[in-house]
Design brief:
By secondary structure, the protein is α+β, with helices and mostly antiparallel strands. It has 2 domains: about 170 residues, no CATH class; about 200 residues, no CATH class. Helices cover about 35% and strands about 20% of the residues. The chain is built from 13 helices and 12 strands. The strands form 3 sheets. Strands 3, 4, 7, 8, 9, 10, 11 and 12 form an 8-stranded mixed sheet that branches. Strands 1-2 form a two-stranded antiparallel sheet. It has a two-stranded antiparallel ribbon with strand order 5-6. Strand 1 and strand 2 form a beta hairpin. It is globular.
Length: about 375
Amino acid sequence: MEWHEVGDRIDLRNIDFSLDDPSKPLPYEAFDFMDRRKDDKEGYQPSGILKEKYQPKGDPKKLCQNQVFVFRSHLGKFHDKGDTTVGFKELCARVNVNDRDDLERTISSHEAKVMFRMFDFVMDLMQYQQEAFVVLLADILELHNARHTSAGVELRVPRTYSELKRKVTKGANSILKNFPAPWVFEIANHACVSLKEVIRIYAALGADYAFGWDAQTGQRNKDGLNGMTAMDRLIEKIQQKMRDSEIDESMILKTNIGHLVFWSDSFLRCFIKQKDNSVWILTVTVCPPEGMESSHMYSYILAIGKSSNDHTRVTEHFMEEARELMKGFEYYSFKTNQIERVAFGMLTWNAALQNENVSTLDLCKNSHFYKLNISFWTNSMSK
């Protein structure tokens, strides 16, 4: 692949893209499954910081930042397989020039690493700490007579709090508002995100799922939960689901198959007025590698609301989405740098009961789901 770099830009016009030739990079349009704006079947609308992310100034023609991030990650890995900053460094470059629709802008990997460390550090600080940090940073740079720019360095480091907000935390073109994130919608007073979209985002960020059936190698993985008899039956059910959906047999063989483990419980935000301060969350763990079960790369929060709310509609929504995922869908794998196909099925749904124990929901009567075990966590054990 010819790589025409002019200053801080990559000339995309001189790159030969292809949808069919694996030796050539995929075009931007190939990743349109990352754009949720065209797939709003249930009328969910983005809110908060995501409103500007998905629909800046109400213009649906603006580029989807999730799609842009994945496209530049794919293109960057084609150029340099060892560069782990691809995607993020192009995001920083767009932030640097205050234009999130510029597909060609780039900075160096070193600059991206510096910006990521700042982003990661700043997001853990309170506002007054962020203000103090940027003042200290500006003083250090001034002490060393550092200029805003220097030869070969495109990145402009924030030197004021307003610049930090504009570039990192709050601006419409900031890193936070344009970093890959799922569309947030509401069901029965619960904030929710799509399971399919979360999986697509984390796969694009480097999640290496331990599939029970790996279509890339054509082998059955028997490690961990994948080695259980229930997983054998789940794989058979998923493959049959795809056949019932009239999916071509050759496509079924090319589909990775993984499992989902759901879990819900309530937590106290504080011990004052416990009835009003208890929070209910629904999480899912998606076929993690051995020892990574609790990693944020494989365990995700799908819904959050007050414990006093009725969670029935939320539960039904994600059960239905789990069924839909059995048919399979496309996603971008950062590991292979290719668009692959995957299907998932639910192994367990662990739910908090009224007696404050936790047990696995018995779903044996539903042919799509299987009950693996029943476990009880008493209050004394939790303490």
